TrEMBL record:
One of its GO terms (biological process) is mRNA processing. This is polynucleotide adenylyltransferase. InterPro entries: Cyclic_Pdiesterase, Endo/exonu/phosph_ase_sf, MJ1316, NT_sf, PolA_pol_cen_dom. Its main location: nucleus. Its EC number is 2.7.7.19. It catalyses: RNA(n) + ATP = RNA(n)-3'-adenine ribonucleotide + diphosphate. GO terms for cellular component: nucleus. It comes from Rotaria socialis.
Length: 1235
């Protein structure tokens, strides 16, 4: 996942500064050359200014290091500061900059300057007042004091005036009139005598109130606002917790006090009773967990009062839905309960008795605060530790609804700290107790776990339950890349004081356990509360700062989704249509569900209700498809009719072999979705039901007369997810998804069952769009031979600590005609004891710290195996160094196979399995999961296969195909086709909707394709496959690698790369023109009848390739030559790898419009190749273009770097006119072949 700061841009951080300025107009941003200039107006006409690079700063923080020329000056000659005061503030600013480091924020600099200006103002005003009485000027008001002395009227007045955390509309001021006594008035209406003739002298102010509660009183020496010391025995008003006990509370506006809410314990909670709206978490829920550091110990050294006030302000700015606090004492509770934001936002609070009794017992505890909803039940759960009753810990357990039928328990915990004896054993026992007691529920464990990722005993407990309980930080971050330290003495001043070991810890966590009924996605997870605050903002000479707590807070935004298991959904096998006449006569007579169910064999029923969202795609459909990849298609045979006496059901029985295959598949499905096992408690018997009976008499009568007239078989190439939208007896099931068996889809051809209408198949045959059976068999044979030869060396006997896979992807995997067989060889390290390692394992492990050496070793082993097994069949063989090592093989029958080699190792430091290219887990398998995601998006693979075949044929015909030439790759065209299928394919009512998919329906998809993408705003928008209910995510802030390219067609697999990254503006415009050209064609011909549509489709495929176009005036011609075909292939491969950078340079640096050929032309002897690039400049102008020739020279120099170049491998170039190029091509020359 992205860095935790990636959601806030540099400009956002700049705009947030307005909140600490007196006016939004006091911050100006304006262009200044290559930079942006920022001017910030402070008090007294003081101005801060700096510059920043908007491109370079996109994902950076607003810190002193990331801005240029930060300076302070007077914005005008109206500055009221004296020379001495200006000198003082200048020195203060210079000292701030000198002491700053790379993490010092610009905001903290501004705040410090403002605070210092305020102090200067106070000092100046004090010196000018000559009528102050002894009552007003006391030693307690000495602003230079670094102690916690009682602060005077002016100090408190200015604090309220300038503190952004205080709502001045809620402040009342009490002053004494010498004749009529005490009067109150709103703070905003108060006028000082030195500023207004009817004003009040400051020495007559007696108290301040906020929200009706006294926060400062001169007579009683009360100062709750700044936390000044009070004399012993001073009365404390404003103590709302005095009448509270352990329990659940809410604020009653009518009573203006906190009142207790009745609640039940978790043990008494009957979860069968539906949750109400007021007890349900929001679907998008904002959490905050924070250990706030109690005031029981080291209060003065950690400056508790200052910290707690700022911490409350942080909570106010965030207003999370759920707040879990640890280390809470009654003094903080009193401050919290008086917060207006807490009262007005309808927060419920859960308080432990250890918080209420903290003063007497020197204890602290936890609290849970929830906004606009309350727990349906809660319990303070003791977690006893054997042999130590004195140190029993308690956690708050609160249960909430997620839907009327689904609940989740939130546990706010604070485990034992290292100050305790036998702390590791205590923490381990506590965790075991929690996991064992809560194993039947959805739950989240939130809080301070008091151990880090290198506390091995505790981590062993978490690892034991890792399949059930997920650490959310690890869900989205690599620990070695983002360790997530929430307790960090090296950077946190409070932690440095409280820590005895000075060790960094990821102490605070969110752990999640979900059952089958719940899923979630993490929108945001980050550490916050890392800023420091001034310890004494009123002291001129005190530059000390402190953090808000010794722990940083952990902020989480997540989206919950409840998922129901319903009888409206099933996974089933459907027999092919040609067998239905053998089945339906029985069903029509005896099966009351004949109109609702097609003939089927249930694999899973009931199944999940699918709602076409990302969660369904990732956690159900993709996982299901990956399982089906491991099972090859098979033939199912029906040979008799049988019955289940217990439920009076008659069914068609599979033969023994077929039954075993279906049972094996169903067992793996249950293993994949164990939550469905409760619905299959009885032994699974695969069957095709043909009759239900409500009485024994009817059952026996039918049973005796039913005989299977003839046995039959049908191929099982697919399984189907069936759904119906209404839970009644009339709504029939429809096909929601058709999912293929096997890693390679059956190739489309005219004999394919479960495919499309016969007439559409005839069209594909006529247009020669189907791959020949011989071509496919050659590819299949090569793949199987390579798989077998790799198995000889990489197998369970030779390797115990590594596994290997050899998988197809690309056009071969998807079952359509392509030039190459793209494959990936994966070597995957697994956890293994050293005593189990083989010598081969040990050899590989020795190389794992040298990724290049390991890659080379594996490639050499594969090369040896290939040459030993298939040497006589190979025409050319070469190795290519790229992101993944590639082995490219051309066989004598012209079959080409490319093998990508990918190695995944376990990084020992983090014990987290990662891939060398930093992708996660299964997502890293090159190309494989990309294809599988397309298949689950398109609903019906056979329709998608035909559709993609047609579009690819058109793109190749008109010269718009080929990533290396600046156009779109086959995968990009596949994403576009999948998008159209997902968005426009009509609901599949039955199997006949697929097998009878007509040429009219196909034409409609084609028409939608060209209409959608011809009008798509490619220059501004990105295209990505989204389920209908999924809210699209913005790509703003993504790295340049993701946004590179003039057409952004985003891969559905992490890390969501742009598959159109090779496109430039010129090729994008050519693609758009090609799409528009088809639309114009369709407006000029009839498309009414089936024959019209056939003809229209035919004309689309017959459109010619217009190279060069009418706009092109000159041609750059590249000629490549060598002694033999193998060398030429190597030479052309090098050319293709460098071509994209040259095209981009021509457009970006030279501002040239380009048209590229989408193929290399070979002479028939295969030792010379030609490639042409068209430009819209005439040859003379192009030859005079210095920038163009600089780019061309840089491009040609790249050929000198080719590691395998020989003397015979040559390249030449010339620039000629289009007329000469065309004339030359009309001359008789040796035959040319395009590749």
């Amino acid at each position: 996942m992205a860095d935790s700061n990636s959601t806030t841009t540099f400009i956002d951080q700049l705009n947030s500064l307005r909140s600490i300025l007196r006016s939004d107009d006091h911050l100006h941003i304006q262009p200044s050359g290559d930079y942006e200039q920022v001017r910030i107006k402070l008090d007294h006409d003081i101005q801060l200014g700096f510059f920043f690079d908007s491109l370079d700063s996109l994902n950076k923080s607003l810190t002193v290091n990331n801005v240029t020329d930060l300076r302070m000056n007077k914005s005008s000659n109206k500055c009221p500061l004296s020379n001495a005061e200006w000198t003082t503030i200048r020195k203060y600013f210079d000292e701030l900059i000198r002491k700053s480091n790379k993490s010092t924020s610009v905001e903290s600099i501004i705040q410090s300057i403002q605070d210092h200006l305020l102090k200067l103002t106070i000092t100046s005003q004090k010196s000018k007042q000559t009528d102050k009485t002894l009552d007003d000027v006391t030693p307690a008001e000495d602003m230079s004091s670094t102690g916690n002395k009682f602060r005077g009227t002016i100090s408190i007045f200015n604090r309220i005036l300038h503190d952004k955390t205080i709502d001045r509309s809620q402040v009342m001021l009490g002053y004494e009139d010498r004749f009529t006594g005490i009067h109150e008035m709103p703070f905003n209406e108060f006028k000082r005598v030195e500023n207004h003739e009817t004003g009040v002298p400051m020495h007559r102010v007696r108290y301040f109130k906020i929200n009706g509660n006294i926060v400062w009183d001169r007579t009683k020496k009360i100062d709750l606002l700044t936390g000044s010391d009070q004399p012993n025995g001073a009365p404390i008003e404003n103590n709302p917790s005095s009448n509270l006990a352990q329990g659940l509370y809410r604020f009653d506006p009518s009573l203006q006090q906190w009142v207790e809410c009745p609640h039940i314990s978790l043990a008494s909670d009957d979860t069968k009773i539906p949750s109400t709206k007021e007890t349900c978490l929001p679907e998008r829920c904002h959490f905050l967990s924070w250990n706030i550091l109690s005031d029981n110990y080291q209060t003065e050294s950690v400056h508790t009062c200052q910290r707690h006030h700022t911490l409350l302000y942080t909570l106010k700015t965030l207003l999370p839905d759920v707040i879990c606090l640890q280390d809470v004492t009654v003094s903080f509770l009193n401050l919290l309960l008086n917060e207006l934001w807490l009262q007005e936002n309808n927060y419920y609070i859960v308080i432990m008795k250890s918080v209420i009794n903290s003063e007497q017992n020197k204890s602290c505890g936890q609290m849970i605060l929830t906004k606009n909803f309350r727990p349906r039940s809660l319990t303070m759960c003791p977690l006893h530790v054997s042999g130590d009753a004195e140190t029993t810990k308690e956690i708050i357990m609160a249960r909430f609804g997620l839907s009327p039928k689904i609940t989740i328990d939130l546990a706010n915990l604070h485990l034992f700290s290292d100050h305790c004896d036998n702390v590791e054993e205590k923490r381990c026992q506590t965790l075991e107790n929690i996991f064992n007691k809560m194993k039947t529920n959805n739950y989240m464990l939130i809080g301070d776990f008091n151990f880090g990722d290198y506390n091995l005993k505790e981590q062993d407990i978490l690892e034991k339950y890792q399949d059930e309980v997920h650490d959310l930080w690890k869900d989205i971050y690599h620990i070695d890349q983002n360790p997530g330290y929430t307790f960090d003495p090296s950077s946190n001043l409070c932690a440095r004081i409280t820590s005895t070991s000075q060790i960094k810890l990821r102490s605070d966590r969110y752990l999640m356990r979900t059952l089958d009924t719940l899923s979630y996605s993490i929108e945001h997870l980050a550490i916050i509360g890392t800023e420091t605050i001034p310890i004494n903002p009123f002291d001129d000479d005190d530059f000390q700062r402190i953090h808000q707590s010794d722990h940083y807070a952990l902020q989480l935004v997540m989206n919950f989704r409840t998922r129901s298991i319903s009888h409206r959904s099933a996974v089933a096998i459907l027999p092919t249509l040609n067998t239905w006449p053998l089945i339906d006569p029985y069903r029509q007579q005896y099966d009351p569900s004949f109109d609702r169910w097609p003939p089927h064999i249930n694999l899973l029923w009931p199944f999940f209700d699918l709602t076409d969202c990302e969660e369904d795609q990732e956690n159900i459909l993709l996982q299901l498809r990956l399982l089906l990849c491991q099972y090859e298609s098979f033939s199912a045979g029906i040979d008799q009719i049988d019955s289940f006496i217990e439920n009076k059901t008659i069914y068609m029985k599979l033969n023994q072999q077929s039954e075993n295959q279906v049972k094996q598949l169903q067992a793996q499905l249950i293993k994949l979705f164990p939550q469905l096992s409760g619905n299959h408690k009885n032994r699974y018997n695969p069957s095709m039901t043909i009759g239900y009976f409500d009485t024994d008499e009817k059952f026996k009568q039918a049973k005796s007369s039913l005989i299977l007239n003839e046995s039959f078989q049908f191929p099982v190439h697919y399984i189907y997810i069936l759904q119906r939208s209404l839970d009644n007896d009339t709504e029939p099931f429809h096909i929601a998804y058709q999912l293929p068996l096997g890693s390679v889809l059956p190739p489309i051809n005219s004999k394919q069952l479960h495919s499309v209408d016969e007439k559409l198949q005839q069209f594909f045959q006529t247009m020669n769009l189907y791959e020949s059976e011989q071509s496919y068999q050659r590819k299949q044979e090569k793949f199987e031979k390579l798989s077998s030869c790799f198995e000889q060396i990489f197998n369970n006997d030779t390797l115990h600590c590594f596994t290997h896979s050899f998988l197809p992807y690309g056009s071969f995997r998807i079952g359509i005609n392509g030039q190459d067989v793209d494959t990936v060889f994966i070597l995957n390290e697994i956890k293994c004891d050293n005593n189990q390692a083989t010598s081969f394992d040990e050899a590989l492990r020795e190389l794992k710290h040298d990724p290049t050496g390991l890659n080379d070793h594996i490639v050499d082993l594969l090369e040896t195996q290939i040459n030993g097994t298939m040497k006589n069949e190979i025409l050319h063989y070469r190795k290519i160094q790229a992101l993944f090592p590639i082995i490219s093989i051309v066989f004598h029958d012209q079959t080409k196979v490319e093998i990508f080699v990918q190695i995944k190792i376990i990084k020992e430091q983090s014990n987290v399995q990662t891939c060398q290219d930093d992708f996660d887990g299964e997502e890293s398998i090159h190309g494989v999961h990309d294809i599988e995601r397309l298949l689950i998006y398109v609903y019906s693979p056979p329709i998608f296969q035909h559709f993609l075949t047609f579009i690819r044929a058109w793109a190749q015909q008109v010269g718009l195909y080929g990533q290396v030439y600046g156009y779109l790759s086959g995968y990009s065209w596949a994403i576009l086709c999948a998008y159209i299928c997902h968005k426009f394919l009509a609901p599949i009512k039955s199997l006949s909707s697929i097998e009878q998919f007509s040429i009219e329906e196909f034409f409609s998809l084609v028409q939608q394709f060209f209409s959608t993408f011809a009008h798509f705003n490619w220059s501004a928008d990105a295209l990505r496959l989204y389920p209908k209910s999924y809210k699209q995510k913005t790509l703003v802030g993504r790295s340049l690698a993701h946004n590179r390219g003039s057409m952004r067609i985003i891969s559905p697999s992490a890390p969501f790369n742009n598959t159109g990254r090779s496109t430039i503006n010129s090729t994008r415009d050519l693609i758009s023109e090609g799409l528009e050209r088809v639309l114009q064609l369709l407006t000029t011909i009839n498309t009414i009848t089936s024959e019209d549509k056939w003809n229209a489709l035919k004309q689309i495929l017959e459109l010619s390739h217009e190279f060069p176009s009418e706009k092109v005036k000159s041609i750059l011609r590249l000629t490549l030559s060598s002694e033999n075909g193998q060398e030429l292939d190597e030479w052309i491969g090098w050319t293709k790898s460098r071509l994209g950078h040259f095209l981009n340079d021509c457009e970006e640096e030279c501002h040239l419009s380009i048209q590229t050929q989408n193929s290399i032309e070979y002479r028939s002897n295969n030792i010379e190749g030609f490639y042409a690039i068209g430009f819209q400049l005439d040859p003379q102008s192009l030859n005079r273009n210095r920038k163009f020739f600089d780019c061309l020279k840089k491009f040609l120099n790249q050929f000198n770097l080719c590691p395998n170049r020989t003397d015979s491998m040559k390249i030449s170039q010339d620039v000629i006119s289009v007329h000469d190029w065309k004339l030359e091509r009309t001359q008789p020359k040796p035959q040319r072949l395009r590749k």
